[in-house]
Amino acid sequence: MSPCLEKESLLQALLDGELDAANALTVEGHLRTCPGCAAHYRLLQALRARLAEADLSAPAPPRLRARIEAAIDSEVRASRSRRGRLGPALGWSAVGAIAAIAASLAVVQTVPLQTASLEDQLVASHVRSLLANHLIDVETSDRHVVKPWFNGKIDFAPPVVDLKDQGFPLVGGRLDYADQHVVAALVYRRRAHVINLFVMPAHAGPLAWLTHHAPTSYSVVHWTRGNLDFWAVSDVEAGDLETFHKAFAARAPA
Q1: CA 62 to chain CA centroid, nearest Å
Q2: Alpha helices in the chain (DSSP H)
């Protein structure tokens, strides 16, 4: 049974995590009703898994690896020195320089398909929500409006709590896409900063941890409660994000 011709590119985009939340939701709905597309998508998933398992990479020569690592180390040290003198705005220039160095020394090789970690995907989603002017689908500080807005759009019920008295006012919510699934994003503010709280069905893992992203300086707090995973992402101070985590966890229903 063949897939729909007009859906083939969308199926590949869904597999690669390249669709926005609305289009991902549409394609996933189509997969539930079209056996041909569903079979083709399973084939793509199996092929991806086989390629990921296969050892297809050709390792770079030791001398080339040493040159790349030395160049990157040198640029990282220089960029840290410049940021210390001129501020964090130069962080992106360092990233570009590192990419240019790697490109100038690159060799052609076949590598297995890989996807970004869930944490990296969510940091990217946070940044994209700010840059693409798609921060909020339902804009309100009323949790009794935000919570039912998700009904019928996702197959779980994210808890929505009011934290205005804690210094984290709710401003709305939206649908987002991560780990090949549509997820809920609750949007809070901390003064001039935005906090995206991503909610999704739980994965097995530690109860909670805090990480700090550099050079982009985004903090991430993850915790699990019941059958849901919570990922808070923001550029607020790490201590503020941990305070948000504790305040939300204390008020969210068990």
Answers
A1: 33
A2: 8-15, 21-31, 35-53, 62-86, 91-104, 118-131, 143-149, 238-251
Do 126 and 136 contact (CB within 8 A), yes or no?
Answer: no
CATH architecture of the domain formed by 118-251: 2-Layer Sandwich (3.30)
User: How are beta strands 181-190 and 219-225 bridged, if at all?
Assistant: unpaired
Residue 20 in tokens: 């926005």
Domain segments of the chain as ranges: 5-53, 62-104, 118-251
What's the CA gap between 55 and 51, in Å, rounded? 8
Closest CA to 75 of 198, 215, 230: 215
> How far is it, in rounded angstroms, from Cα 50 to Cα 152?
35
Classify residue 28 by burial, with Cβ atoms within 10 Å: 0-12, 13-18, 19+: middle
pLDDT tens-digit readout, 106-159: 443 433 334 468 888 888 888 888 886 678 899 999 999 999 999 999 999 999
Helix (H) or strand (E) holding 7: none
Category of 240 on φ-ψ map: left (φ > 0), alpha (ψ -120 to 50) or beta: alpha
Residues 11, 12, 18, 20, Cα dihedral to 10°: -10
- The answer, yes or no, to whether residue 16 has pLDDT greater than 70, is yes
Are 98 and 69 spatial neighbours (Cβ–Cβ below 8 Å)?
Answer: no
